[in-house]
């Protein structure tokens, strides 16, 4: 039986099949890709990378990233991808917390170089020219090769951080077997195969782009299409040119692509499926996507601590339930009474979503207090609130720490969001709590319009037909855009911080 390590990830139908296409620049076969990974793995080992060492990767989406990632893990190292838009202070925290042995960047000075210099971490620069990836240190190309140590499935392969919505970001070490289990679950659930071509629109420093769209495709023997940067203006041209069969994105990107589809002559019925993850998808957007492209839209649920995917709506002929995040995908999912940890609830009961599976991390890095809080009898507490129905479909109803407490009434912001999104002119909606002298907390919401101009009062009137009076937003902020993270996510706390300042 093969070890469940990333060394056994690549699974082409033929070595000559295309593994990765960089539109307008490069394409590489599975054989050449594998050769590049092995050569770079040897270079890293020959120049000081030992088993268990962490390498921070500060690279944009592209072939360099994909080669480096597997090369590091094949050498027994730990890959720690970082968002290139971080400040020097943020880089310092992440590099120090992950114990980086090396930092890999593209050529040029950046806040990452400042951080690495401050921490005395050697900087490696990389580029892909003439069909080869080169790595240099202080301007000198690395040439010494050494056979790398073979990692086991119990070795850590990937080191990421949570978003840190409540405290400082927590380090998440994921082992080879965690990743391989999650990737295998994704391949199986979506019936991925060598004929599939996935367009990567999410950043590779995030599990959505790296595991959900990229590594899963490589395990299935399919082809990755990786633009160096997501661009709505070139997306549909690339889809047609490279015969893309599926893509995965956050709702914001789906909406942008849908708006451009007719203008850019997007093909009809070319996708096998469309995947949506990382945030709730408005029902109207889902309906419009399916109507325009004739493909099922599959809403999924993932998180870093679970190596990405935990549940998803299934492919036809199985039923899809819009508004839910589907059924468990190789992961045990249950609903626990958050007030009585360890007490599990039945179908239709609302409580905390807990998970258990081979894809789930063993614990946060050097954080015993967080681990004690996060695990109950080997079940991981997601911090999300939800319901599992009689057919085992999961609906996320909110974040436990985001529940709005209005005079003792607990209000799920996701429930309010859903009501707002049912208004024909509302494209995006995020509700949040604002401190209130009378009620303790009251409900506010920020909305982006995509239809006829309406005022906040008419939107409140619309909500009155859906929500109980105490759940209707007291104030609705109409805005042109909502602040987002680098991965396109909308974090409720950032919305609250932004718009509560404008409240009267």
Verbal overview:
With 504 residues, the chain is of the alpha/beta class. It has 3 domains: 16-151, Rossmann fold, CATH 3.40.50; 181-399, 3-Layer(aba) Sandwich (Rossmann fold), CATH 3.40.50.12780; 403-500, ANL, C-terminal domain (GMP Synthetase, Chain A, domain 3, 2-Layer Sandwich), CATH 3.30.300.30. It has 13 helices and 27 strands. The strands form 6 sheets. A 9-stranded mixed beta sheet has the order 2-1-12-11-13-14-15-16-17, with helices on both faces. Strand 26, helix 12 (456-464) and strand 27 (475-478) form a beta-alpha-beta unit. The radius of gyration is 23 Å and the shape is globular.
Sum up the structure in keywords.
single chain; 504 residues; alpha/beta; Rossmann fold; GMP Synthetase, Chain A, domain 3; 3 domains; 6-stranded mixed sheet; 27 strands; 28% helix; globular
Structural domain tally: 3
Tell me the structural class. alpha/beta
Largest sheet: 9 strands, mixed
**Mind telling me the C-alpha Rg?**
23 Å
Architecture (CATH level 2) name of the largest domain: 3-Layer(aba) Sandwich
User: DSSP strand (E) fraction?
Assistant: 25-35%
CATH domain topology of the largest domain: Rossmann fold
End-to-end distance? 65 Å
* Mean pLDDT level: 92
CATH class of the largest domain: Alpha Beta
Summary, kept brief:
The protein has 504 residues and is α/β, with parallel strands linked by helices.
Describe the SSE topology.
Elements: E1 18-22, E2 26-29, H1 30-46, E3 54-58, H2 63-74, E4 78-81, H3 88-98, E5 100-106, H4 111-118, E6 123-129, E7 132-137, E8 140-141, E9 156-161, E10 171-175, H5 176-189, E11 197-200, H6 207-219, E12 223-225, H7 232-242, E13 246-249, H8 251-260, E14 273-276, H9 283-293, E15 297-303, E16 308-312, E17 327-328, E18 332-336, E19 351-356, H10 368-374, E20 375-376, E21 379-388, E22 394-399, E23 404-406, E24 409-411, H11 413-421, E25 426-436, E26 440-449, H12 456-464, E27 475-478, H13 492-500
Parallel strand pairs: 1-12, 3-4, 3-5, 5-6, 11-12, 11-13, 13-14, 14-15, 26-27
Antiparallel strand pairs: 1-2, 6-7, 7-8, 9-10, 15-16, 16-17, 18-19, 19-21, 20-21, 21-22, 23-24, 25-26
Helix pairs in contact: 1-2, 3-4, 5-6, 7-8, 8-9
């Amino acid at each position: 039986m093969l070890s469940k390590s990333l060394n056994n990830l690549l699974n082409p139908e033929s070595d000559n099949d295309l593994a990765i296409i960089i539109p307008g620049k490069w394409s590489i076969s599975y054989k050449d890709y594998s050769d590049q990974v092995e050569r770079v793995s040897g270079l890293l080992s020959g120049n000081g990378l030992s088993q268990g060492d962490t390498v921070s990767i500060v690279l944009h989406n592209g072939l360099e990233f994909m080669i480096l990632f597997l090369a590091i893990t094949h050498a027994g190292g730990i890959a720690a991808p970082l968002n290139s838009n971080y400040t020097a202070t943020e880089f310092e925290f992440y590099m120090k917390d992950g114990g980086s042995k090396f930092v890999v960047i593209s050529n040029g000075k950046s806040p990452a170089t400042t951080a690495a210099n401050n921490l005395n971490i050697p900087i490696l620069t990389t580029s892909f020219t003439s069909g080869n990836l080169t790595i240099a240190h202080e301007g000198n190309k690395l040439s010494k090769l050494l056979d790398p140590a073979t990692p086991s499935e119990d070795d850590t392969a990937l080191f990421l951080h949570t978003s840190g919505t409540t405290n400082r970001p927590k380090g998440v070490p994921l082992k080879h077997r965690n990743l391989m289990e999650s990737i295998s679950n994704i391949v199986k659930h979506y019936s991925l195969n060598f004929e599939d071509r996935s367009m990567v629109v999410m950043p590779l420093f995030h599990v959505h782009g790296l595991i959900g769209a990229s590594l899963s495709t490589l395990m299935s023997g399919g082809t990755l299409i990786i633009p160096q940067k997501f661009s709505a203006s070139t997306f549909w041209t690339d889809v047609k040119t490279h015969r893309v069969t599926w893509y995965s994105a956050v709702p914001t990107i789906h909406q942008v692509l849908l708006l451009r589809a007719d203008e850019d002559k997007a093909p009809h019925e070319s996708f096998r499926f469309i995947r949506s993850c990382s945030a709730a998808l408005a029902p109207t957007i889902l309906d419009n996507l399916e109507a325009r492209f004739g493909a099922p839209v599959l809403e999924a649920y993932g998180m870093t601590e679970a190596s990405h995917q935990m549940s998803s709506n299934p492919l036809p002929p199985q039923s899809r339930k819009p508004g839910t995040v589907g059924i468990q995908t190789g992961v045990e999912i249950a609903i626990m009474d958050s007030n009585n940890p360890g007490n599990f609830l039945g179908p239709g009961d609302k409580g905390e979503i807990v998970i258990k599976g081979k894809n789930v991390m063993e614990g946060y890095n050097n954080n015993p207090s967080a681990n004690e809080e996060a695990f109950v009898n080997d079940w991981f507490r997601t911090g999300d609130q939800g319901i599992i129905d009689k057919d085992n479909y999961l609906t996320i109803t909110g974040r436990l720490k985001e529940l709005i407490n209005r005079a003792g009434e607990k209000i799920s912001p996701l429930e309010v969001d859903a009501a707002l999104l049912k208004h024909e002119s509302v494209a995006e909606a995020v509700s949040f709590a604002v401190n209130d002298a009378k009620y303790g907390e009251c409900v506010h919401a920020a909305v982006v319009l995509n239809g006829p101009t309406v005022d906040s009062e008419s939107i409140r009137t619309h909500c009155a037909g859906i929500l109980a009076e105490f759940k209707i937003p007291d104030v609705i902020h109409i805005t042109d855009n909502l602040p987002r993270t680098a991965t396109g996510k909308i974090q409720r706390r950032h919305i609250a911080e932004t718009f509560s300042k404008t409240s009267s």
